[in-house]
Amino acid sequence: MRLSRLPALLALALAATAVSAAETVYVLDPGHTFPSFEADHMGMSTWRGKFNRSRGEVRLDRERGTGQVEVAIDARSINFGLDALNEWAVGDQFLDTARYPEATYRGKLTDFRDGAPTRAEGELTLHGVTRPLTLTIDRFKCQPHPLHKRDWCGADAHATFDRSQFGLDAGRDYGFDMNITLRIQVEADIKTDEAAP
Protein backbone atom coordinates (compact mmCIF):
# COMPACT_ATOMS: atom_id res chain seq x y z
CA MET A 1 0.00 0.00 0.00
CA ARG A 2 1.33 3.43 -0.89
CA LEU A 3 1.89 5.61 2.17
CA SER A 4 0.34 8.56 0.33
CA ARG A 5 -3.04 6.77 0.44
CA LEU A 6 -2.92 6.16 4.21
CA PRO A 7 -4.35 9.56 5.29
CA ALA A 8 -7.30 9.14 2.93
CA LEU A 9 -8.05 5.66 4.24
CA LEU A 10 -7.84 6.88 7.83
CA ALA A 11 -10.23 9.71 7.00
CA LEU A 12 -12.72 7.24 5.52
CA ALA A 13 -12.46 5.00 8.58
CA LEU A 14 -13.07 7.93 10.91
CA ALA A 15 -16.04 9.06 8.84
CA ALA A 16 -17.57 5.58 8.98
CA THR A 17 -17.08 5.51 12.76
CA ALA A 18 -18.77 8.90 13.10
CA VAL A 19 -21.76 7.72 11.06
CA SER A 20 -22.22 4.55 13.12
CA ALA A 21 -21.78 6.49 16.37
CA ALA A 22 -24.75 8.68 15.45
CA GLU A 23 -27.07 5.67 15.73
CA THR A 24 -28.56 5.27 19.19
CA VAL A 25 -30.02 2.03 20.49
CA TYR A 26 -33.02 2.16 22.82
CA VAL A 27 -34.43 -0.78 24.77
CA LEU A 28 -38.20 -0.96 25.16
CA ASP A 29 -39.37 -0.54 28.74
CA PRO A 30 -41.79 -3.45 29.33
CA GLY A 31 -43.41 -1.55 32.20
CA HIS A 32 -44.43 1.26 29.85
CA THR A 33 -44.99 -0.58 26.56
CA PHE A 34 -48.38 -2.18 26.01
CA PRO A 35 -49.56 -3.16 22.51
CA SER A 36 -53.35 -2.95 22.55
CA PHE A 37 -56.12 -3.62 20.05
CA GLU A 38 -59.71 -2.84 19.15
CA ALA A 39 -61.94 -5.46 17.57
CA ASP A 40 -65.57 -5.59 16.46
CA HIS A 41 -68.16 -7.71 18.29
CA MET A 42 -70.89 -8.50 15.76
CA GLY A 43 -71.32 -4.83 14.93
CA MET A 44 -72.78 -4.27 18.39
CA SER A 45 -69.74 -3.01 20.31
CA THR A 46 -65.97 -2.70 20.19
CA TRP A 47 -63.92 -5.08 22.29
CA ARG A 48 -60.61 -3.73 23.57
CA GLY A 49 -57.68 -5.59 25.04
CA LYS A 50 -53.93 -5.49 25.41
CA PHE A 51 -50.86 -7.66 25.76
CA ASN A 52 -49.19 -7.46 29.16
CA ARG A 53 -45.71 -8.57 28.11
CA SER A 54 -43.51 -7.36 25.27
CA ARG A 55 -39.84 -6.61 24.57
CA GLY A 56 -37.74 -5.10 21.83
CA GLU A 57 -35.49 -2.28 20.75
CA VAL A 58 -35.31 0.76 18.51
CA ARG A 59 -32.25 1.89 16.55
CA LEU A 60 -32.43 5.56 15.70
CA ASP A 61 -30.25 8.02 13.80
CA ARG A 62 -32.10 11.32 13.95
CA GLU A 63 -29.48 13.22 11.96
CA ARG A 64 -29.67 10.89 8.97
CA GLY A 65 -33.38 10.25 9.37
CA THR A 66 -33.09 6.45 9.62
CA GLY A 67 -34.00 3.82 12.12
CA GLN A 68 -35.32 0.35 12.81
CA VAL A 69 -37.77 -1.08 15.30
CA GLU A 70 -38.30 -4.61 16.54
CA VAL A 71 -41.03 -5.64 18.97
CA ALA A 72 -41.78 -9.13 20.26
CA ILE A 73 -45.17 -9.62 21.92
CA ASP A 74 -45.95 -12.50 24.26
CA ALA A 75 -49.26 -13.67 22.77
CA ARG A 76 -49.98 -15.66 25.93
CA SER A 77 -50.28 -12.39 27.86
CA ILE A 78 -53.43 -11.26 26.03
CA ASN A 79 -55.86 -9.53 28.39
CA PHE A 80 -59.43 -8.59 27.56
CA GLY A 81 -60.28 -8.00 31.22
CA LEU A 82 -62.35 -11.19 31.11
CA ASP A 83 -60.70 -14.45 32.18
CA ALA A 84 -62.95 -16.72 30.12
CA LEU A 85 -62.22 -14.76 26.94
CA ASN A 86 -58.49 -14.73 27.66
CA GLU A 87 -58.50 -18.53 28.00
CA TRP A 88 -60.40 -18.93 24.72
CA ALA A 89 -58.11 -16.49 22.87
CA VAL A 90 -54.89 -18.35 23.72
CA GLY A 91 -56.41 -21.70 22.73
CA ASP A 92 -56.27 -23.52 19.41
CA GLN A 93 -59.48 -21.91 18.15
CA PHE A 94 -57.79 -18.53 17.94
CA LEU A 95 -54.17 -17.51 18.73
CA ASP A 96 -53.03 -21.09 19.43
CA THR A 97 -50.20 -19.87 21.64
CA ALA A 98 -48.95 -23.41 22.25
CA ARG A 99 -47.74 -23.32 18.63
CA TYR A 100 -47.31 -19.57 18.19
CA PRO A 101 -46.29 -18.06 21.54
CA GLU A 102 -45.03 -14.77 20.09
CA ALA A 103 -46.08 -12.13 17.60
CA THR A 104 -43.36 -9.88 16.18
CA TYR A 105 -43.12 -6.63 14.31
CA ARG A 106 -39.96 -5.58 12.47
CA GLY A 107 -39.78 -2.41 10.44
CA LYS A 108 -37.86 0.62 9.25
CA LEU A 109 -38.60 4.08 10.62
CA THR A 110 -39.38 6.45 7.75
CA ASP A 111 -40.75 9.84 6.75
CA PHE A 112 -38.80 11.79 9.36
CA ARG A 113 -39.96 15.31 10.20
CA ASP A 114 -37.82 17.49 12.46
CA GLY A 115 -35.79 14.45 13.48
CA ALA A 116 -38.82 12.29 14.36
CA PRO A 117 -40.21 9.37 12.31
CA THR A 118 -43.86 9.47 11.28
CA ARG A 119 -44.14 5.92 9.87
CA ALA A 120 -42.75 2.42 10.38
CA GLU A 121 -42.77 0.21 7.29
CA GLY A 122 -42.30 -3.44 8.07
CA GLU A 123 -43.82 -6.86 8.64
CA LEU A 124 -46.08 -8.32 11.30
CA THR A 125 -45.76 -12.01 12.13
CA LEU A 126 -48.89 -13.27 13.87
CA HIS A 127 -50.27 -16.79 14.26
CA GLY A 128 -47.39 -18.08 12.13
CA VAL A 129 -48.18 -15.77 9.20
CA THR A 130 -46.00 -12.85 8.08
CA ARG A 131 -47.50 -9.95 6.14
CA PRO A 132 -46.54 -6.32 5.42
CA LEU A 133 -47.85 -3.73 7.85
CA THR A 134 -47.22 0.01 8.02
CA LEU A 135 -47.63 1.78 11.34
CA THR A 136 -48.58 5.44 11.51
CA ILE A 137 -46.61 7.13 14.28
CA ASP A 138 -48.93 9.69 15.82
CA ARG A 139 -46.43 11.02 18.36
CA PHE A 140 -42.68 10.60 18.86
CA LYS A 141 -40.55 12.41 21.40
CA CYS A 142 -37.10 12.02 22.97
CA GLN A 143 -35.71 13.84 25.99
CA PRO A 144 -33.52 13.19 29.05
CA HIS A 145 -35.29 10.99 31.61
CA PRO A 146 -35.99 13.12 34.71
CA LEU A 147 -35.04 10.28 37.09
CA HIS A 148 -32.50 8.10 35.28
CA LYS A 149 -30.72 11.03 33.58
CA ARG A 150 -30.32 9.17 30.30
CA ASP A 151 -31.88 9.60 26.89
CA TRP A 152 -35.50 8.46 26.81
CA CYS A 153 -38.02 8.20 23.94
CA GLY A 154 -41.74 7.62 23.73
CA ALA A 155 -44.21 7.11 20.91
CA ASP A 156 -47.76 6.21 20.00
CA ALA A 157 -48.42 4.30 16.78
CA HIS A 158 -51.34 2.54 15.16
CA ALA A 159 -52.39 0.44 12.16
CA THR A 160 -55.51 -1.39 11.02
CA PHE A 161 -55.35 -4.83 9.40
CA ASP A 162 -57.58 -7.74 8.39
CA ARG A 163 -57.08 -10.49 10.97
CA SER A 164 -58.42 -13.16 8.63
CA GLN A 165 -55.28 -12.70 6.51
CA PHE A 166 -53.37 -14.16 9.47
CA GLY A 167 -55.69 -17.18 9.75
CA LEU A 168 -57.71 -15.58 12.56
CA ASP A 169 -61.22 -15.64 11.10
CA ALA A 170 -63.20 -16.73 14.17
CA GLY A 171 -66.62 -15.07 14.22
CA ARG A 172 -66.79 -14.19 10.54
CA ASP A 173 -69.88 -16.39 10.05
CA TYR A 174 -71.59 -14.43 12.82
CA GLY A 175 -70.99 -11.08 11.18
CA PHE A 176 -67.80 -9.99 12.95
CA ASP A 177 -65.80 -7.35 11.09
CA MET A 178 -62.36 -8.86 10.48
CA ASN A 179 -60.54 -5.53 10.78
CA ILE A 180 -58.52 -4.95 13.94
CA THR A 181 -56.87 -1.71 14.99
CA LEU A 182 -53.51 -2.25 16.66
CA ARG A 183 -52.20 0.52 18.91
CA ILE A 184 -48.75 0.56 20.46
CA GLN A 185 -47.80 2.90 23.28
CA VAL A 186 -44.08 2.61 23.84
CA GLU A 187 -41.34 4.08 26.00
CA ALA A 188 -37.68 3.15 25.63
CA ASP A 189 -34.45 3.98 27.44
CA ILE A 190 -31.06 4.34 25.83
CA LYS A 191 -29.24 1.02 25.91
CA THR A 192 -26.54 0.81 28.56
CA ASP A 193 -24.35 -1.92 29.99
CA GLU A 194 -26.04 -1.42 33.33
CA ALA A 195 -29.26 -3.19 34.24
CA ALA A 196 -32.28 -0.90 34.38
CA PRO A 197 -33.30 -0.02 37.93
TrEMBL record:
InterPro entries: Lipid/polyisoprenoid-bd_YceI, TTHA0802/YceI-like_sf. Residues 25-189 form the Lipid/polyisoprenoid-binding YceI-like domain. Residues 1-21 form the signal peptide. Keywords: Signal. Gene3D superfamilies: Lipid/polyisoprenoid-binding, YceI-like. This is Polyisoprenoid-binding protein YceI.
